[in-house]
Amino acid sequence: MNNYIEKNKQRFLDELIEFLKIPSVSADPKFDGEMQKAAEWISQKLTDAGLDNAEICETAGHPVVYAEKIIDESLPTILIYGHYDVQPADPYELWNSPPFEPVIKKTKIHPDGAIFARGACDDKGQIYMHVKAIEMMMAEGGLPCNVKVMFEGEEEVGSENLETFIKENKERLAADIILISDTSIIANDIPSVETGLRGLSYMEVEVVGPNRDLHSGVYGGAVANPANVLAKMIASLHDENGKVTVEGFYDKVIELTAEERDALEAAPFDEEEYKNDLDVNAVTGETGYTTRERAAIRPTLDVNGIWSGYIGEGSKTVLPSKANAKISMRLVPDQDWKEISELFEKHFKAIAPDTVKVKVSRHHGGQPYVTPTDSIGYMAAFKAMEEAFGKTPVPTRGGGSIPIVALFEEVLGLKSILFGFGLDSDALHSPNEHYGLFNFYKGIEAIPLFFKNFAELSK
User: What percent of the chain is modeled with pLDDT above 90?
Assistant: First the structure.
């Protein structure tokens, strides 16, 4: 099959570039037409790859793209999940090249080249690996398993309408395992398979003071400044040891055993290289945990955006009437995102002084997830990585979230296998997002191996 990749690698790349040119930003209504265009584009490519019944399924939001190939009802069925929507590209001025005009550049980490564009790694490049792997299997002897594909358009805004879709299509989506490529490996020479993800609670807060912006000379010192108040409230959300101060936040956190922590720490990690990559002088976080543990197995609270007052060129001496922030909390087993959201809202309102009014809004969230490493699906993925890379992969825990994964298990009764090929350094959600060509082609190589292994282990 590697010959098929070699013969078609430029076409594969050209098609991905075409896909990446579509600004399928789900968060901004001005891109709604582009979202539809992206759904139609990937639907056609699934048909071209040899799948049947490709359909653009309308939802109350952006559509779900579905296709399948049932070759034998007695064979196991793999359901592939991914998303064609992307994060907003703002701030555009921080991109070295336009975010929706893909370019190939060589980097220190990607000497074979990487494709720079919004969505290159998260998740267009990774879902397109599956499309091309299916095409390759169909062309080179056929599929060893039945396959169903479901690509959604709202993952980056919380998959609000996917729950309704999967509940209404439960029989249609029946499968034996879910395969997801929306995660990462440790390095291109250190393959890994993630065993879990953190959950997410995403909130927005607003602190309101006077009924209008005020002259800071006339009113400063006499009227509460919402920006100052918000800054103090946010600062109080962590104690001197880096622990979140929201009451009840840690009550249901499952602490890993010493053996489990040692197993995670066994994976190669260079903290100096980590700091150099981020251009920071030191790392920080919860006392008593390593950098990797803080970013994977511990819950967190972070400000994702904050705004207030005058931020234009020059100066304007105002005391702002309100201040806002977006705050996300990454969660671990057994924290419940809805419960944590309620605890946060209660806490944030309780710490507000009488001089301001506070509003707390919930955006979206999802539960944490752990994959059993003794399952057929995980073993098939582990073996496929080993065969593709020629090295034994390392089990890891992911720090990110795919909120819908826990729902898949709840509604469909299916475990998910996290079979990603990106790197943490690929600038996901940031300016200059990119995806290595090595990783793109390696994924196309490894996915058929998963199919083969899963079919054999399922006998």
Answer: 92
b/e for 357-375, b at 16 or more Cβ within 10 A?
ebebeebbbbbbbebeeee
Q: Which residues contact 31 (CB under 8 A, 6 or more apart)?
A: 23, 24, 25
- Residues 426 and 431: their CA atoms lie apart, in Å, by 10
CA dist 22 and 41 (Å) reads 9
Distances in Å between the Cα of 283 and the Cα atoms of 268, 274, 291, 318, 396 are 17, 9, 7, 35, 20
Of residues 389, 182, 189, 213, the one with CA closest to residue 270: 189
Closest residue by Cα to residue 166 from 176, 156, 152, 180: 152
Residue 212 in contact with residue 294, Cβ under 8 Å?
no
| Span 53-71, pLDDT tens digits | 999 999 999 999 999 999 9
Quickly tell me which residue has 């105002």 as its tokens: 318
Contact partners, residue 138, CB within 8 Å, separation at least 6: 49, 50, 69
Task: State the DSSP H helix or E strand holding residue 226, giving kind and residue range, or none if neither.
Answer: helix 226-235
User: How far apart are the C-alpha atoms of 152 and 57, rounded to whole Å?
Assistant: 9
- Burial state string for 396-428 with b = 16 or more CB within 10 A and e = fewer than 16: bbbbbbbbbbbbbeeebebbbbbbbbbbbbbbb
DSSP states of 38-70 as a string? Answer: HHHHHHHHHHHTT-EEEEEE--SSSPEEEEEE-
Distance of CA 76 to the CA centre of its chain: 27
Confidence of residue 401 (pLDDT cuts 50, 70, 90): confident
Quick one: DSSP state of residue 206?
Answer: E
Q: Which helix (H) or strand (E) is 177 found in, with range? A: strand 177-180
166: enclosing H helix or E strand: helix 162-168
Q: Among all chains, which residue has been given the structure tokens 């702002």? A: 320
